[in-house]
Write a structure and sequence with these properties.
heterodimer, A: alpha+beta, Rossmann fold, Alpha-Beta Plaits, 3 domains, six-stranded antiparallel beta sheet, 16 strands, elongated, disordered C terminus, B: mainly alpha, three-stranded antiparallel beta sheet, two-stranded antiparallel ribbon, 5 strands, 75% helix, 4% strand
């Protein structure tokens, strides 16, 4: 991706106000008397970070963004965006926005779309003329600027949509499902654009279902479930205490080896002899790290390789054949599924990860198997 | 603010430009102009191209000056039929979707997320809808101005009053269309309900015109009886004076002839008295209906009166009276003593009707109609501003 001069760097020198680009408290939205789309969202987004908002369908992600964009009126809202109260129209000049399911006038060309929406953001004509070709190039649409939108594929419309969101050189860019309908190459390009925006000090607020995409680009995420923030923080913060080592044994006799090797090392939660027969049998090492045994796999709640060495020695002594030993960090998808299964409640620290697996199972069942 | 307004108008122009219907309407406007450019008048009569048009009464350039003919053709064919019916329907079809499409999902988010108030956005979009009508009428009027100049030898800048008048007329309907568009978000509903509303206005206007026509007829008849009775009164007085002189009971000079005395001398006038009384009764019966229709019209847009204002300004009453006088087949006004019927001069009645129409003040026609439009737009703005999109 080429660097675009259309995107001026936002530096601390031209930032006014607090470090928070978005600072929300108690944002609520009730439709009619009964449907509570948002139940008091409190959320903070730092300036210059890429923030990901994720959640299942109907969680209220787009509603929240639309409230910030003044498209929807909140039932209750405290907080600010770029130092201005939520709902201020003036601040919208400093914001870029790509809505989900956007619909551009099909009689316009790509360049005209950029020009029109930039004019609506009151970008001077000279700047529009300068930025339009630069941003079309940035999103890989340089050769399509004079072609009507009606002839674009969905992915091309999405690229033009991202370009229009950047026409006013915004301080915050809201991208609602930016990779929707975009092919893998396009998705990679969009990730690179987001990375470039971060490099230039822009704040990027991403709404996406594609968790792997968010994981690759986001500094911090919030998981929205049933109109509430279930989790919020950096990936490190969210996965703290959930990292583990997984030791997998080979051979049919693996459970027997585990049965004979581990009792001396573990304080078991269940009677001896039952250890390897039950999936999810649990215990604790002398150092307090949790251990979970799942047939031929042993999971240990630690990030320290020294902790698992005695365990490996003991297994080897009892003739176990070790197929693999690998450190495991929960993915964003794991966190998401865990949050979806357990809305708005933080799990206690050091909770064994089988809860996540169980919760994922519940979610899949609720949603017809499509998590 | 100006950047946004210009952007919305440029966008509306691009949208119109992309619509085939816009250019079809332009083309049809050109054809209408050509049709009445093909009409000619000279001392031999009226012609369409080379063919003489038969008329019930002889019409030629001595009874109808060419300038007046073209102005009346412009008003009757160009404005009253083409612009306020056919072209208006085409304009409504082209523009009914502007507001519903703007507030549809995927489109409205793009606009509301910009620093523009909802009210200004809606009103500017409304104004861009009027741009369609403005461009159409401006093009048509310019072509007509040239035709009337070349064919009628009169360069009449007053013709351009058609532009604001027809746009104002269209704006009444488009105000209704905007409100329905905001309420239903449906182009079809906005179009059909606006046309339905327009039909309602047409029925009300037609009712008003019929009542006004009956009223003018009755009034003319009543005045005719008054005139006939008044004229007979002089003759009757002479007869009665002679009779009294013969009988030795002379009539005093200042004696006012009573109706009984009049009928004593001229018994055939009893029919005229009866008919005049009937006419008075009919006028009294008509009055509450006329008041009711007038009251109803006060709160709704006066579509036909608005476009008729052009005729009021282009063709003076003096022109119309001169045209009526030049008509050789004017019926004589007078009383048929055998039937008691009054013979009305049709031209006179037409002039009276025109005077009655012109007696309605411009402020009432435009002011109350624009007030209706303002109510429609205010309601649309309130609904749009309070709604979640």
């Amino acid at each position: 991706m080429s660097e675009s001069p259309a995107l001026a760097t936002t530096t601390q020198a031209n930032i006014q106000g607090s470090d928070w680009a978005i600072d929300l408290a108690q944002v609520a939205k009730t439709y009619g008397r009964k449907i509570q789309a948002l139940k008091g969202i409190s959320m903070r987004v730092r300036r210059g970070e890429v923030f990901g908002l994720l959640g299942p369908n109907g969680a209220g992600k787009s509603t929240l963004v639309k409230i910030l964009m003044t498209v929807i009126k909140p039932s209750r809202c405290e907080g600010s965006m770029l130092g201005q109260p939520i709902g201020s129209r003036a601040v919208l000049r400093r914001i870029g926005y790509l809505p989900e399911h956007h619909r551009f006038p099909t009689y316009l060309t790509g360049a005209q779309v950029l020009d029109f929406y930039a004019a609506m953001t009151e970008v001077p004509r000279a700047d529009r003329r300068k930025r339009t070709p630069e941003l079309l190039d940035l999103v890989g649409m340089g050769d399509w600027g004079s072609t009507r939108i009606s002839k674009y594929s969905k992915g091309m419309r999405q690229r033009v949509g991202i370009a229009q969101a950047l026409m006013n050189n915004p301080e915050i860019v809201f991208l609602d499902e930016p990779t929707d309908g975009v092919d893998p190459v396009g998705r990679r390009d969009i990730r690179e654009i987001v990375a470039e925006l971060r490099r230039r000090g822009k704040t990027v607020f991403l709404n996406s279902h594609l968790l792997s995409e968010l994981e690759m680009v986001c500094d911090r995420v919030a998981i929205l479930v049933h109109g509430q923030v279930a989790r919020q923080g950096t990936l490190d913060e969210l996965t703290a205490g959930k990292e583990r080592y997984e030791i997998t044994l080979a051979g049919d006799e693996a459970p027997t080896r585990i049965e004979s090797a581990l009792p001396g090392l573990l304080r078991l939660d269940q009677p001896q002899g039952e250890l390897a027969k039950r999936v999810g049998a649990r215990g604790e090492l002398a150092g307090g790290q949790w251990v979970e045994i799942d047939h031929a796999t042993i999971r240990v709640g630690t990030t320290d390789p020294a902790t698992i060495q005695p365990l490996i020695d003991k297994l080897r002594e009892h003739g176990a054949v070790i197929r693999s030993i690998r450190p495991h960090r929960p993915s964003l998808e794991d966190l998401f599924l865990e949050a979806v299964g357990e809305p708005a409640s933080e799990p206690p620290p050091n909770t064994p990860p089988n809860n996540a697996a169980n919760n994922a199972g519940k979610f899949a069942a609720k949603n017809g198997g499509a998590a | 603010m100006i950047t946004q307004t210009i952007a919305l108008f440029v966008d509306a122009y691009r949208e119109l430009n992309a619509k085939k219907l816009f250019w079809i309407t332009m083309l049809l406007s050109g054809l209408v102009v050509l049709v009445y450019a093909a009409v000619g008048i000279n001392e031999k009569g009226i012609f369409f191209l080379w063919f003489k048009i038969p008329t019930p009464v002889p019409i030629d350039s001595t009874t109808l000056p060419p300038a007046l003919l073209y102005k009346q053709l412009f008003q009757a064919l160009g404005i009253k039929i083409w612009l306020t019916w056919a072209a208006t329907i085409l304009a409504l079809i082209s523009t009914a979707g502007i507001i519903p499409e703007m507030i549809s999902g995927g489109s409205i988010e793009m606009l509301l997320s910009k620093p523009i108030s909802r009210t200004r956005l809606l009103l500017t979009k409304y104004a861009t809808g009027l741009m369609f009508a403005t461009l159409q009428v401006a093009a048509f009027t310019t072509a007509s101005f040239i035709i009337i100049g070349v064919r009628g030898h009169v360069w009449e800048p007053g013709l351009f009053l058609a532009v604001p008048l027809v746009v104002v007329f269209f704006s009444y309907l488009y105000g209704v269309c905007a409100l329905i568009g905001v309420l239903t978000r449906s182009t079809i509903a906005a179009l059909l309900l606006t046309i339905l509303c327009w039909c309602g206005l047409f029925i009300l206007n037609t009712g008003d015109a019929v009542l006004m026509g009956i009223n003018v007829q009755l009034q003319a008849r009543h005045d005719g009886y008054d005139r006939a009775i008044s004229k007979s009164r002089d003759g009757a007085r002479k007869l009665l004076t002679a009779r009294r002189a013969e009988s030795g009971d002379p009539l005093p000079d200042d004696h006012a002839l009573s109706d009984e005395e009049l009928l004593e001398v001229m018994p055939f006038l009893s029919l005229a008295f009866d008919r005049r009384a009937e006419t008075e009764q009919s006028l009294a019966k008509l009055k509450p209906w006329m008041k009711a229709v007038y009251a109803a019209k006060t709160i709704v847009p006066k579509t036909s009166e608005t476009t008729s204002l052009l005729e009021r300004w282009l063709v003076s009453m003096a022109d119309l009276k001169a045209q009526a006088r030049a008509n050789p087949e004017r019926a004589d006004s007078g009383l048929d003593t055998k039937t008691g019927e009054i013979n009305l001069d049709d031209q006179e009645v037409k002039l009276r009707a025109e005077e009655a129409i012109r007696a309605r003040p411009v402020w009432w026609i435009l002011g109350t109609s624009l007030a209706f439009e303002a109510v429609m737009l205010s309601a649309a703005c309130v609904v749009f501003a309070r709604r979640d999109n």
